[in-house]
Design brief:
Elements (H helix, E strand, L loop, with lengths): L2 H25 L13 H4 L5 H8 L1 H4 L13 E4 L2 E4 L16 H9 L15 H4 L4 H13 L23 H8 L12 H11 L5 H4 L22 E3 L2 E3 L8 H4 L2 H10 L10 H8 L6 H15 L19 H8 L6 H9 L1 H4 L17 H4 L4 H9 L1 E2 L11 E2 L8 H13 L10 H9 L4
Antiparallel strand pairs: 1-2, 3-4, 5-6
Helix pairs in contact: 1-8, 3-7, 9-14, 12-14, 16-20, 19-21, 20-21
Length: 443
C-alpha cells in the first residue's frame, strides 16, 4: 500500500469515528436517571452501614493508589483505551466530591457522568451499578461525605490518545452498553434474589467474568444473557467462567464456594491476581447471610441444577494416573517439564497435583492453570503470588517466585507440563509467550 493510500485510510477512519461521535451527540442526549423505586426491600436493602455498601461495591480497591490515601484516587487501570487513573472521591470540595449533591453522585453511578455532565470512562462500572438500590446509593453517599476524611490532592490526569480522549463520544457507547436502570427480583426466593442483586449490581462480577464485544461492551448483565459470567480477561489474567458444567460454582459445593469467597482459599483453589484484592477489600466483609446468598445464586445459575457435581474435582482417578506414577518413579529420562516440576513444585503440590486443603491449591482442573489465556498462570510462576489475609484465614500464604531461577524456555516447559498432566487438557506454552509476560510483570 502506498503512502498516499495509507494516508487516505487514516483520514477515512477518522471521518467515520467523527461521524459516529457526532451521531452520539445529536441522538443520545446527556441525561440523569432518577432514583429507582424501591422494590422487594428484603432483597436489596443494604445489610448495615454506608461502609458496608462501600465494601459491597469494592470502591476502595479502585479509588486508592498503591500505598496511597484511601479514596484519594490515582489507581492506574489498564484498559483497551489506555491507562485510566481513578478519581478522588473524598469529600474535599476542590479535589474530590465535596460539592456534589446526591443527584450528582447517583448520576455518576447510574449514568457515568460527573457533577458537570462530563462522561466517565467505562473503567467505572456504571453499566453494572445501574442496578444499585436507592438505599445503597444513599448509604454510600452519606458514608463518603460524613465518614471519609477529605484529601486535598489531585490524582494523575488520564491522558488518552485521540479519539479516546474525546469523552463526549461515549454517549453513543452508553446507548449501546447500558440497559434499563433498576433491579427487578426474578425468583420466588429472597436468598436467590439477594444473591442476584449482589452479583449483578454492587459486586459487578460480570465486569470481569463476562466477555466483551469489540466495542468493549459487557456481554450480558443477567442470566438471561447466554454469555453472562461465561469468563473474561482482565490485565492479562483469565477471569474464569462462573457458569457452565466445568465452572467452579457447578463443581464445588456451597460450603467450599462460601469459603473461597470469604477467604480466597478452600480445599481446591487459592486466589491470585486481580481477584485477590476483591477478596481482601470487599468479599471478606460480607455478612454470612450475604456471602451465602451469592454462593447459592452462583450455583443456581452455573448450570442445570441436576448437573451440579458434588463433592468436587477429586474422583480418585488422578491419584492412580500415569502422571503421578511417573513423578514418583523420578526417572532421569523424564521430560524437562516433569523434572522441573519435581525440583520446584512437587514439595507443595505433590505428585498427584492435589496440593493440600486450604494451603496449596490443586493443579488438577484448576481454572487458572487451564485458561486459554495463560498470562495469569505464568505471572504466578514468574513472580509468585500471595493469598490475601482475611478475618477467617489471617495467614498471608505466599508462593515463591521462580522467575530468577528459570529461563523462559524452562518456564514454558514447566507450564506446559502442568497444563497437560493428570488429565489436564490445555494448549502448550511457548517461550515467546513467557518472554512477553516477563517483560510486562508489574513492579
Amino acid at each position: 500500500m502506498t503512502t498516499g493510500a495509507k494516508f487516505l485510510r487514516v483520514i477515512g477512519v477518522l471521518v467515520i469515528l467523527g461521524a459516529v461521535a457526532l451521531l452520539g451527540v445529536i441522538f443520545v442526549p446527556v441525561q440523569r436517571t432518577p432514583a429507582q423505586v424501591q422494590v422487594a426491600a428484603d432483597a436489596v436493602v443494604v445489610a448495615g452501614s454506608g461502609e458496608y455498601a462501600m465494601r459491597l461495591g469494592d470502591c476502595m480497591a479502585c479509588h486508592t493508589a498503591k500505598g496511597g490515601v484511601p479514596f484519594a484516587g490515582g489507581y492506574p487501570i489498564d484498559s483497551p483505551l489506555g491507562t485510566i487513573y481513578s478519581s478522588n472521591i473524598t469529600p474535599d470540595p476542590d479535589h474530590g466530591i465535596g460539592n456534589w449533591t446526591l443527584d450528582d453522585f447517583r448520576a455518576s453511578l447510574y449514568d457515568g457522568i460527573d457533577e458537570e455532565g462530563r462522561h466517565l470512562y467505562p473503567a467505572m462500572p456504571s453499566d453494572n451499578y445501574r442496578k444499585l438500590s436507592e438505599a445503597d446509593i444513599v448509604s454510600l453517599f452519606r458514608y463518603l461525605m460524613d465518614e471519609v476524611a477529605p484529601v486535598a490532592s489531585d490524582p494523575p490526569e488520564t491522558d488518552l490518545s485521540f479519539p479516546f480522549d474525546q469523552r463526549w463520544g461515549l454517549r453513543l457507547w452508553k446507548w449501546v452498553a447500558y440497559e434499563k436502570a433498576g433491579f427487578a427480583p426474578r425468583y420466588d426466593d429472597l436468598i436467590l434474589d439477594r444473591g442476584a442483586y449482589l452479583v449483578e449490581g454492587p459486586g459487578h462480577c460480570g465486569a470481569c467474568h463476562s466477555p466483551r464485544s469489540a466495542l468493549f461492551v459487557q456481554s450480558g448483565y443477567s442470566p438471561d444473557d447466554g454469555d453472562f459470567l461465561s469468563g473474561g480477561v482482565i490485565n492479562g489474567w483469565a477471569a474464569p467462567a462462573l457458569r457452565g458444567p466445568g465452572s467452579a460454582p457447578a463443581i464445588w459445593d456451597e460450603a467450599q464456594l462460601v469459603a473461597f469467597l470469604q477467604s480466597g482459599r478452600n480445599n481446591h483453589a487459592g486466589v491470585a491476581g486481580e481477584m485477590a484484592s476483591v477478596v481482601e477489600d470487599s468479599l471478606q466483609y460480607m455478612t454470612d447471610a450475604d456471602v451465602t446468598a451469592v454462593a447459592r445464586y452462583l450455583r443456581h445459575v452455573a448450570t442445570d441444577a441436576n448437573a451440579l457435581a458434588t463433592p468436587g474435582l477429586r474422583s480418585g482417578e488422578a491419584t492412580q494416573s500415569g502422571t503421578a506414577a511417573m513423578l514418583l518413579a523420578a526417572s532421569p529420562d523424564m521430560d524437562l517439564g516433569a523434572r522441573l516440576y519435581l525440583d520446584n513444585c512437587n514439595a507443595c503440590h505433590f505428585s498427584t497435583g492435589f496440593g493440600a486443603d486450604g494451603v496449596f491449591p490443586e493443579l488438577v482442573g484448576n481454572a487458572s492453570v487451564l485458561a486459554d489465556e495463560p498470562g495469569g498462570f505464568l505471572q504466578v510462576i514468574l513472580a509468585g503470588a500471595a493469598m490475601p489475609s482475611t478475618a477467617t484465614r489471617p495467614a498471608r500464604l505466599r508462593m515463591p517466585s521462580f522467575g530468577e531461577r528459570l529461563s523462559d524456555d524452562e518456564v514454558a516447559a514447566l507450564a506446559t507440563f502442568v497444563r497437560q498432566a493428570w488429565g489436564n487438557d490445555a494448549s502448550l506454552v511457548v517461550a515467546e509467550t513467557v518472554r512477553e509476560v516477563r517483560a510486562n510483570l508489574p513492579e
